[in-house]
Amino acid sequence: EVQLVESGGGLVQPGGSLRLSCAASGFTFSSYAMSWVRQAPGKGLEWVSAISGSGGSTYYADSVKGRFTISRDNSKNTLYLQMNSLRAEDTAVYYCAKALEDVPGYDAFDIWGQGTMVTVSS
Amino acid sequence: AIRMTQSPSSFSASTGDRVTITCRASQGISSYLAWYQQKPGKAPKLLIYAASTLQSGVPSRFSGSGSGTDFTLTISCLQSEDFATYYCQQYYSYPGTFGQGTKVEIK
């Protein structure tokens, strides 16, 4: 079964850090670009970051550039998002998503994880 | 970034209705347009990509059309499980951007 399972969300104070993980199964992980997409409470979808299948190319939304780092370990079929200098406006459900092809940053997403909630509050 | 605008933002419909949701891009995106369905508390689900290609496993009552700047998602005969929020997404250029969503509610 093709599946993505996120973990690592939680409550963090402003200025703090969190690392999200996304475990993939059921497909050749290294053959596809992966992205993180977030959704603030009651709001729409916002693409956050993407990485190519090899991990050699990474892309970020302006709102997180310089604070978030995307990476992947193809030997472990796992995607990561390191989030530093967190702000209240980063509060959202974070989804990992598989691209249709190895086109990071602008592709449709055919598989999504269940999401992990990140709350930034003092 | 390309701006995607959906209309309407929400509306009410009855089971069996034919419904249409519109998505407009701020510049031409060829056919690089996807539609997603999201139910409360769940992840989005890909319905259509390349403007009109039905994703595997999606019922044939869903269809998409359009190219350039104007696109539509049509549900030919609304079922109870179709009440949800629908999002369009352009993936013509970086960064891929989503519309604000259209909520389909029960009348």
Descriptive overview:
In chain A, the strands form 2 sheets. In chain A, strands 2, 4, 5, 6, 9, 10 and 11 form a 7-stranded mixed beta sheet that branches. A 4-stranded antiparallel beta sheet of chain A has the order 1-3-8-7, with no helix packed on it. Chain A is mostly beta strands and 122 residues long. Chain A has no helices and 11 strands. The mean pLDDT of chain A is 96. In chain A, strand 4 (34-39) and strand 5 form a beta hairpin. The relative contact order of chain A is 0.31. The N and C termini of chain B lie far apart (36 Å). The A-B interface holds A 44-47, 59, 61, 95, 100, 103, 105-110, 112-115 and B 32, 34, 36, 38, 42-46, 49, 55, 87, 89-101.
Short précis:
Chain A is mainly beta.
Which oligomeric form is depicted? heterodimer
Structural class of chain B: mainly beta
Count of helix runs of chain A: 0
Strand % of chain B is: over 45%
What percent of the residues of chain B sit in helical stretches (DSSP H or I)?
A: under 10%
Strand content of chain A: over 45%
Task: Specify the helix fraction band of chain A.
Answer: under 10%
Overall outline of chain A: globular
Quote the average pLDDT of chain A: 96
Ends distance of chain A: 39 Å
Determine the N-to-C terminus distance of chain B. Answer: 36 Å
Mean pLDDT of chain B: 97
Tell me the number of strands of chain A. 11
Identify low-pLDDT runs of chain B: none
Please compute the radius of gyration of chain B using only Cα atoms. Answer: 13 Å
Number of strands of chain B: 11
Order of helices and strands of chain A: EEEEEEEEEEE
User: Over all CA atoms, what is the radius of gyration of chain A?
Assistant: 13 Å
